[in-house]
């Protein structure tokens, strides 16, 4: 009968939905930066597991959640995951995607709104772990700090080390076979795909109209 608890329990499934979304996006887009983002999330999870097994701080109510995969709670993996995802996405929105059209106000507006939504979801998921007695406030706080630091470090690593290698990786025979592509030189991939698709649709429509005449 605890509606708030049920809602927060569903919100705590956010990491699962994000992973499914990433896998789906990679299957259909096959873009190297997206693959790198998912790799960063996986590495972040590995670091979380390592820290937990080094510190070995128990959860606040171990007997209340017998189905959890690990008895250690410091730092919170959900909090670390969500703050990695949110901070990395924030950096991507403001540093990777640049203005490419004249709708400056709308371009900034949707970025601000999306950033607020990302932070809100990260806060709610973090809070849910305390509310549902999976973690203490300190475990959630340190998870958020660790995830944020990892996100900044991985974004810098991707931008400075991996991105210059993406064109070479995209040219590998195996990358061409699996249609893996590099869009790192395109400032705003959403705007680019929109304009290219619209131009191609108009071109095909003109050709179709010529054939029918």
TrEMBL record:
- What biological process terms from GO does the record include? lipid biosynthetic process; protein N-linked glycosylation
Protein name in the entry: Dolichyldiphosphatase
What EC identifiers does the entry list?
Answer: 3.6.1.43
Q: Molecular function terms in GO for this entry? A: dolichyldiphosphatase activity
Cellular component per GO, a single term: endoplasmic reticulum membrane
Q: CDD domains, from UniProt?
A: PAP2_dolichyldiphosphatase
* Subcellular locations according to the entry: Endoplasmic reticulum membrane
Function noted in UniProt:
Required for efficient N-glycosylation. Necessary for maintaining optimal levels of dolichol-linked oligosaccharides. Hydrolyzes dolichyl pyrophosphate at a very high rate and dolichyl monophosphate at a much lower rate. Does not act on phosphatidate.
- Reaction(s) catalysed (UniProt annotation): a di-trans,poly-cis-dolichyl diphosphate + H2O = a di-trans,poly-cis-dolichyl phosphate + phosphate + H(+)
* Pfam families found in the cross-reference section: PAP2
**Chief localization:** endoplasmic reticulum
Q: Does the keyword Manganese apply?
A: no
Q: What pathway is it annotated to? A: Protein modification; protein glycosylation
Q: Which Gene3D superfamilies does this entry report, sorted A to Z?
A: Phosphatidic acid phosphatase type 2/haloperoxidase
Q: Domain of life, per the record?
A: Eukaryota
The EC category is hydrolase
Keywords associated with the record: Endoplasmic reticulum, Hydrolase, Membrane, Transmembrane, Transmembrane helix
Q: Does Membrane count among this protein's keywords?
A: yes
Question: Which residue ranges does UniProt annotate as crossing the membrane?
Answer: 7-28, 81-97, 109-128, 140-158
Family in the record: Belongs to the dolichyldiphosphatase family.
Q: What positions does the domain Phosphatidic acid phosphatase type 2/haloperoxidase occupy?
A: 34-155
Membrane topology reported for the UniProt record: Multi-pass membrane protein
- InterPro entries xrefs: Dolichyldiphosphatase_PAP2, PAP2/HPO, PAP2/HPO_sf
């Amino acid at each position: 009968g605890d509606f708030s608890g049920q809602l927060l329990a569903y919100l705590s499934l956010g990491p699962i939905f994000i992973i499914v979304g990433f896998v789906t996006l990679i299957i259909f887009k096959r873009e190297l930066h997206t693959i790198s983002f998912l790799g960063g999330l996986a590495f972040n999870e590995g670091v979380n597991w390592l820290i937990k097994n080094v510190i070995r701080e128990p959860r606040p109510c171990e007997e209340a959640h017998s189905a959890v995969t690990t008895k250690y709670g410091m730092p919170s993996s959900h909090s670390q995951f969500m703050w990695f995802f949110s901070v990395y996405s924030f950096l991507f929105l403001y540093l990777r995607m640049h203005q490419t059209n004249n709708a400056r106000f709308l371009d900034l507006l949707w970025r601000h709104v999306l950033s607020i939504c990302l932070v809100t979801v990260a806060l709610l998921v973090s809070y849910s772990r305390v509310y549902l007695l999976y973690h203490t406030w300190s475990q959630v706080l340190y998870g958020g700090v660790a995830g944020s630091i990892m996100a900044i470090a991985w974004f810098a690593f991707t931008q400075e080390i991996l991105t210059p290698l993406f064109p070479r990786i995209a040219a590998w025979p195996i990358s061409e076979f699996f249609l893996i592509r590099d869009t790192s030189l395109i400032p705003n991939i959403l705007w680019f795909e929109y304009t290219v698709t619209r131009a191609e649709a108009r071109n095909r429509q003109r050709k179709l109209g010529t054939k029918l005449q």
